[in-house]
UniProtKB/TrEMBL annotation:
Xref: InterPro entries: BBIP10
GO-annotated cellular components: BBSome
GO process terms (BP): cilium assembly; receptor localization to non-motile cilium
Top-level division of the source organism's lineage: Eukaryota
Gene source species: Leptonychotes weddellii (Weddell seal)
Listed name of the protein: BBSome-interacting protein 1
Gene that produces this protein: BBIP1
Length: 70
């Protein structure tokens, strides 16, 4: 691509102060809340809880079987 020359040329003052019209201001936005636990960790905890519940149910069933046979 060919370079396009600007119609305006930049002029910097040799004396005095240089002023800029564009004033930057702080922009406020909504805070982004991050989860305390990652989704993967939550899934692992749910899987672990489900496994513990299954083991408890099996143990209860075994106790019931032992009580019936005794």
């Amino acid at each position: 691509m060919a370079e396009v020359k600007s119609v305006f040329r930049e002029v910097l003052p040799k004396q005095g102060q240089l002023s800029v019209e564009d004033i930057t201001t702080m922009v406020l936005c909504k805070p982004k809340l991050l989860p305390l636990k990652s989704l993967t960790l939550e899934k692992l905890e749910k899987m672990q809880q489900a496994a513990q519940d299954t083991i408890r149910q099996q143990e209860m069933a075994e106790k019931e079987q032992q009580q019936i046979t005794h």
